[in-house]
């Protein structure tokens, strides 16, 4: 019986490895000029603060973007909203949600909207000179994705995204369908994760594909498991460029969090600093997080995220014993003792 169990576990791991290798080969084949660069921008103040190593953490709703396989770690409905102040007048908005469906399945979705502000139109006259006009336009980008994840046994998960993305500049627009795929394995407290993202499907062949690979673990700094260390790498086939990062997250009493990461061989997003606060309100947990990113010659960016977790999901119990069903009532014990009688003697 034990040999059969070990063989089944080994088969699940092999299946997951083959799954990610095949998808990596698809991504590596798509070398060329990229479009829709906005899909590379990291949402989530927490995820950005931890760097590419977050692909091996992905234990909250923002796994929908970084590694959909990580969705199997959530136990209840989670919602996240983020606003980012980007360079110039650009603003980046992001919203995501995820929820459990039974014990082993998870569903999620996210939407990204990037607005570049108002830009004045110019026209060329007969002399070849450009002149400004009173008209203007507002370039924008949009992405909408649906996510699904499944847990295979107790230590390995697979996840996929299907997304629609568009770029609009005045009267010109570009649309496309893309996919992401991810895997996450827990090897005795050490998590290994990988995702292949922005795989072009259908009419888009120059999508900004990439591969993330990471490893993370929790260690003791001042209290048990209060420090998360995440190492990650990111490879972009179109430019044959690879970068790496190291990120850390320290938590105090599940209330205060400090985060930071440093990226190697990255032209932008090289240094990230952030923090957050989390509070349990009884049936609902709220979190607010902040991130500051240094973008090299492009300046800097500020992210502010708000997260909400509602209740507890299936299979998540507080304590080792389950409560008895309220439908089964126990009859009260009868008291057969009778009060002692008093007899008067003369």
- Tally of separate helices: 3
- Which whole number gives the mean pLDDT? 82
Gross morphology is: globular
Query: Roughly what percent helix?
Result: 10-25%
- Side-by-side strand order of the widest sheet: 1-2-3-6-7-8-9-10-11-12-13-14-15-16
Please describe the biggest sheet, giving its number of strands, its sense, and whether it closes into a barrel.
14 strands, antiparallel, barrel
**Extended strand count:** 16
Strand-residue proportion: over 45%
Structural category: mainly beta
How far is it from the N-terminal to the C-terminal residue, by CA? 82 Å
Q: Regions with pLDDT < 50 over 5+ consecutive residues? A: 7-32, 313-346
Order of helices and strands: HHHEEEEEEEEEEEEEEEE
Radius of gyration: 26 Å
What does it look like?
With 346 residues, the chain is mainly beta. Helices cover 11% and strands 50% of the residues. It is built from three helices and 16 strands. The strands form two sheets. It has a 14-stranded antiparallel β-barrel with strand order 1-2-3-6-7-8-9-10-11-12-13-14-15-16. A two-stranded antiparallel ribbon has the order 4-5. A hairpin with a 5-residue loop joins strand 4 and strand 5 (130-137).
């Amino acid at each position: 019986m034990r040999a059969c169990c070990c063989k089944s576990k080994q088969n699940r791991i092999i299946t997951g490895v083959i799954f990610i290798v095949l998808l990596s080969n698809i991504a590596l084949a798509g070398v060329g000029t990229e479009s829709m660069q906005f899909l590379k921008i990291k949402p989530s103040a927490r995820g950005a603060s931890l760097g590419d190593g977050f692909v091996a953490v992905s234990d909250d709703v923002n796994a929908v973007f970084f590694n959909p396989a990580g969705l199997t770690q959530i136990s209840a409905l989670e919602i996240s909203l983020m606003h980012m102040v980007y360079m110039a007048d650009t603003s980046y908005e992001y919203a995501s949600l995820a929820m459990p469906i039974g014990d082993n399945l998870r569903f999620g979705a996210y939407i990204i909207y990037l607005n570049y502000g108002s830009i004045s139109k110019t026209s060329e006259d007969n002399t070849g000179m450009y002149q400004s006009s009173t008209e203007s336009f507002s370039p924008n980008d949009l992405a909408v994705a649906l996510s699904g994840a499944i847990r295979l046994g107790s230590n390995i998960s697979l996840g996929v995204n299907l997304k629609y993305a568009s770029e609009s500049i005045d009267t010109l627009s570009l649309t496309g369908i893309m996919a992401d795929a991810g895997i996450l394995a827990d090897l005795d407290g050490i998590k290994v994760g990988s995702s292949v993202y922005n795989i072009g499907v259908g009419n888009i062949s120059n999508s900004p594909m990439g591969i993330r690979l990471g490893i993370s673990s929790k260690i003791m700094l001042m209290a048990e498991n209060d420090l998360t260390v995440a190492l990650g790498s990111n490879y972009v086939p179109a430019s044959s460029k690879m970068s790496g990062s190291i990120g850390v997250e320290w938590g105090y009493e599940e209330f205060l969090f400090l985060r930071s990461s440093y990226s190697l061989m990255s032209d932008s997003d090289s240094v990230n600093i952030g923090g957050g606060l989390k509070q349990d309100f009884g049936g609902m947990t709220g979190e607010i997080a902040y991130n500051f990113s240094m973008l090299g010659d492009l300046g800097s960016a500020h992210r502010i995220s708000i997260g909400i977790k509602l209740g507890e999901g299936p299979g998540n119990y507080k304590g080792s014993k389950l409560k008895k069903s309220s439908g089964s009532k126990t009859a009260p014990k009868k008291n057969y003792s009778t009060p002692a009688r008093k007899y008067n003697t003369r």
